[in-house]
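Memo subject: From amino acid sequence to discrete backbone structure tokens
Keywords: amino acid chain, backbone geometry, structure tokens, three-dimensional fold.
Body of memo: The sequence and its backbone structure tokens, given next.
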Amino acid sequence: MRFALILAALALAGCASDAAMDDPLFKAGYEAGCGMAHSSREVRAAMTKDQPELYRRGFSAGFSVCGGGKDVGR
């Protein structure tokens, strides 16, 4: 299952280079995005505010792969 999620993340992050996806900053963002996939938009925005682009790209990929996309607490 985890392997399938990683493959899906790679597909979703198609604009990111392989080197970028191996970067610890991308990985940290991915893990955070996945962990916050069901949190509110405001919480996610606060989490990514002032973060580097590579972190935000990882966050977006993790968020998408782990079931994000539906706003919580509107």
